[in-house]
Amino acid sequence: MSPPSPALSLEDERSLVDATIRYCWAIDGRDFDALADVFTDDAVVQYGFVDPIQGLAEIQAYVAKILTPLDASQHLVTNHQSGRDADGVHSRCYFQAQHVRKGSDGGANYIVAGIYRDRWSETPAGWRIRERVLEVLWTEGNAAVIGVPSGR
Amino acid sequence: MSPPSPALSLEDERSLVDATIRYCWAIDGRDFDALADVFTDDAVVQYGFVDPIQGLAEIQAYVAKILTPLDASQHLVTNHQSGRDADGVHSRCYFQAQHVRKGSDGGANYIVAGIYRDRWSETPAGWRIRERVLEVLWTEGNAAVIGVPSGR
Amino acid sequence: MSPPSPALSLEDERSLVDATIRYCWAIDGRDFDALADVFTDDAVVQYGFVDPIQGLAEIQAYVAKILTPLDASQHLVTNHQSGRDADGVHSRCYFQAQHVRKGSDGGANYIVAGIYRDRWSETPAGWRIRERVLEVLWTEGNAAVIGVPSGR
User: Architecture of A10-146 per CATH?
Assistant: First the structure.
């Protein structure tokens, strides 16, 4: 796997990172409307453990279903890279997503961490993700927090 | 919660991120004098679990009290956003702070993670935080590391 | 410990951060050839718990030996700072490295986190690390994942 290349302009690179970060604040803040500033209307997201999800409204509904029952979540993104190839502009970054349930039993946390691989479209409103593929590298904690039976 | 806007200049944005990072190196390196390059003299920090702390000297004393007994700490900051509104320049970022005690019992770690929400003043020496509000999203590990009775 | 200074140009700073990130993607993707775009041919890496490792080929061999047996790894880097002094260009950042073994027993994770302190050389191909010193601040999980007997 070679590093993405050739490099984008500093301004374009910054726009991609900003949108990648905007995604995190939007979902962790349960501001699912703000995902319209992240994805194209016909974007496809492949979370890996469910069928691909197509369309902004479907993505919003899916993320809301997973995160709304939680007491908190925090999606850290780091190690951003971007480039351009025959299929256009792409980027990848690492994510580490904490999912939190509080409760009288002391609560529980569940981390899912891995890679976001994104394909981008430039729209009149700015760069938007048209395809995101999530790759899980590791998990830690209690999977029951996000409704998955316990056990790694 | 909408994303902060309008965007700052790239140079100003970089200065804010740099100062946010400088805070982490300063406290993790126990170089509390360096906090003078982070906060205004009359800055207020709201850690949430204690009364607001006002003034650089008080902030330095408080952070020193919490961190000096530890064998190590590491404050990661990511997901930086900044903007400008009627009250001036603001930013927010995610933090994940590890607190470490070593010892013959094997030692223990305690993570506190959440959001720093900062208000900034431009001074002759550069951008300084005039107000920081810390919001805890999750914790993990042994709270006794920072002197809090065990239990989440 | 004072913050690195004076600041590099934005372009140089970006090149250093990019190479620091490239290291992570290279080793986590088991693309050890790509380390030629990170280190000088005669680079020295001090991991701390083994003798200093000198030369690109030796670094590649060492990292391959540690990481190839794992099912996954993820090296997050954040809090980047850089500067210039009498010995040239230097930088430091925080890292948090997850090491993952999967298996019928449920698998195990082992985090090693700390500081990368780097010295750089400008080559015709761009900035390369000529010296890296790794400082471990904390660990978490099962050290047997990387072949170290259990226990912190």
Answer: Roll (3.10)
Task: Answer positive or negative: Cα dihedral of C65, C81, C140, B30.
Answer: positive
In a 10 Å sphere around its CB, with 0-12 CB exposed, 13-18 middle and 19+ buried, how is residue C51 labelled? exposed
For residue B98, give the nearest of C1, C3, C113 by CB distance: C113
Residue A29 Cα, gap to closest chain C Cα (Å): 22
State pTM to two decimals: 0.94
C107 with A152: Cβ contact below 8 A: yes
Q: Which sequence spans correspond to the domains of chain B?
A: 10-146
Q: Phi and psi (nearest 5°) for A69?
A: -70, -15
Residues of B in contact with A22 (CB under 8 A): 3, 81
List of residues 6+ apart from C151 with CB closer than 8 A: B106, C143
Residues B96-110 pLDDT 10s: 999 999 988 889 999
Q: ∠ CA(C9), CA(C13), CA(A9), 5° rounding?
A: 90
Query: Across the interface, do C81 and B29 touch by the CB < 8 Å criterion?
Result: no
Tens-digit pLDDT profile for residues B72-83:
999 999 999 999
Q: Is the peptide bond before B52 cis (omega within 30 degrees of 0)?
A: no
CA distance B25 to B34: 9
What is the ipTM, given to two decimal places? 0.93
Per CB-CB distance under 8 Å, the chain C contacts of A113 are 74, 98
